[in-house]
Amino acid sequence: MSEVLRVQDLHVTLDGQEILRGVELAVPAGEWLTIIGPNGAGKSTLLSAVGGLLRPASGEIALHGTPIGRLRRRERARAVATVAQDPVVPAGMTVTDYVLLGRTPFISALGRESAADLDAVADVLTRLDLTAFADRELATLSGGERQRVFLARALAQEAKLLLLDEPTSALDVGHQQEVLDLVDQLRRSVGLTVVATMHDLSLAGLYADRLLLMAQGRVAAVGTAEQVLTEELLSRHYRARVRVIDGGDGPLVVPVRAR
Ligand code: ADP
Ligand code: MG
Question: For residue 130, how far is the Cα from the chain centroid?
């Protein structure tokens, strides 16, 4: 299977602080990898580095075998699309105009969007069941609807690697499932590779092929949900009291109250 992403000995320093300290990661085509780890572990920083949004101090990030430093902005945008943790919602912008931003890498510097760009946007809106919202102001949508629009913008970019930073943390359990099912369905139909971060450990285990546990800027564990969601690893790295039980579809992580 071809490799979509490889990260080798990645170090990132922000404001004089070493935030990522030798991260290693390889993601084959079609995989869904979810990064878990306590607040401040460096999950968002890792996604930003992979998306080319910050410059690593050292190490290498390769997309389809090419170091991202050698890709031009446009090439990078066609390889990898990011949905940030808390995307900016531009005031007064309609859903269609927002999703059209995903087509920026296809539009020449002085050009306007083409009919093909508008078709691509209409197609994505249909696929995500957003056609009814096409002319609505993005700011007036509910959290779940808006999350679908953020995904739509990333999909309109037509990149095969999708980076999702906490795509479900603002959503209720029904909308969480709706968004994750949708991503899973798109992964299969469009052939996407997904790297996400998530805080809900049980949910993370249910949807990912593999989990990667980050702690203090390093990879603490990587493997299947059964291998990573263990009481030992979670208590060590989250300083949490949890019990892991067999949920039938995979491990469930249940908090336990102190006595
Ligand atoms: P996570 O997503 O795992 O919660 P982050 O990657 O957002 O963690 O942050 C990791 C660490 O890097 C945190 O301690 C955070 O305060 C720090 N950090 C993030 N961005 C910056 C920045 N621009 N300047 C300095 N420190 C930062
Ligand atoms: Mg984060």
Answer: 20
**Could you tell me the end-to-end alpha-carbon distance of the chain, in angstroms, rounded to an integer?**
49
Residue type, 21: R
Which pTM was predicted? 0.94
Strands (E) in 15-65, as ranges, are 17-28, 32-36, 58-63
**Structure confidence by residue, pLDDT tens digits, 186-209:** 899 989 999 999 999 999 999 999
The answer to whether the beta carbons of residues 254 and 242 sit under 8 Å apart is yes
- Ion ligand 2: protein residues whose beta carbon lies under 5 Å: 43-44
Alpha carbon of residue 50 to chain centroid = 11
- E strands, 97-230, are 161-165, 193-197, 210-215, 218-223
Bridge-partner residues for 212, per DSSP?
35, 222
Q: Rounded to an integer, what distance in angstroms lies between the CA atom of residue 207 and that of residue 183?
A: 10
Residue 175: the pLDDT is 86
> What average pLDDT does the chain have?
94
Residue length of the chain: 259
**Cα 66 to middle of ligand 1, angstroms:** 27
